[in-house]
């Protein structure tokens, strides 16, 4: 009798994708967990449920400095085009998608004055100058911020401006033997600038790259600082204290501690400490479980604020309570879809194609971004004129 061999069950393609993206074996999952904690802080702050949640941005900035330090300063030799393309494929597809869809769904029915402001904010976001626009138009913690669905992109503009700075550093630092001194100097100068803004009471410094550069630099300097050699017990204690400081800042900080404030240095140092202590039991138990949220944190960040703003426009009152929870639930679904079909797709394409196709795709992304920005600039201009 002939026996037909049945094929062994194979893992489905979707399960492989989910395991690769959300439960990776080749990545610091506790840092993904830190991202998850940061985005949870920001979303809960914007929902009105966590007074110190703004500290999530400071967490993101330190983490960004750490990863960009590896991508730019630790690569030998540095590959400028690869660095630029990777950043473009990582950021632009989801940003263009969010701003395009929100603009198309919103600008045709809002008041003319609101249309002008929303369109110009979207245009500045697409050219990564949203923080500069916001510093001259609206206070981040003021009530009128709820009228701008793209106001949250100020931090993305900060990040891209930092990318430009670290790109130049990666090109120029090989020319000097004093790399540590240069990085330490940038950190010190920015920290002093931030302290001066605090003394002056300049609250618009919240948006300023020069007041934030010390946070990025702190993350970058992790690569040049000596790694602590601690026993597992001591490492876990230090890690737990650092995590407690970070969580405590999110729970108990008030708006007076927002950047520029000397109080922001504590959670930033705590985050740097956590990054410098990999493979602790505390990290595996506390941060790794929320790492999937960190994986989609960029998409969640992009979509959560427009969701809240649109809901407030639609219902003509400030959304809160169960209605806010429902809005955030919808936003989470949209964010997962954005990650899988937009953000992840762009990165997969960049990994898959050859150099020439990759560069052409990056040029198309930039062209699309600039075209949409020009359209929004025009809409804003026409709305103000008429």
Strand and helix map with partners:
Layout: H1 13-22, H2 29-46, H3 55-73, H4 80-106, H5 112-126, H6 130-135, H7 154-172, H8 179-200, H9 209-221, H10 232-252, H11 265-275, H12 281-286, H13 291-295, H14 297-315, H15 321-352, H16 355-385
Compute the number of strand runs: 0
Gross geometry: globular
Uncertain ranges = 1-11
- C-alpha end-to-end distance: 86 Å
Rg measurement, Å: 22 Å
Mean pLDDT: 90
Structural class category: mainly alpha
Largest sheet report: none
Helix fraction bin:
over 70%
Along the chain, the helix and strand elements come as HHHHHHHHHHHHHHHH
Percentage of residues in DSSP E strands: under 5%
Total of DSSP H or I helical runs spanning 4+ residues:
16
Describe this structure in words.
Helix content is 71%, strand content 0%. The chain is mainly α and 386 residues long. Helix 3 (55-73) crosses helix 9 (209-221). The longest helix is centred in the C-terminal third of the chain and has 32 residues, at 321-352. The chain is globular and about 65 Å long. It holds the Pfam family Acyl_transf_3. It comes from Komagataeibacter melomenusus. Residues 30-336 form the Acyltransferase domain. One of its GO terms (molecular function) is acyltransferase activity.
In short:
71% of the residues lie in helices and 0% in strands. The chain is mostly helical and 386 residues long. This is Acyltransferase.
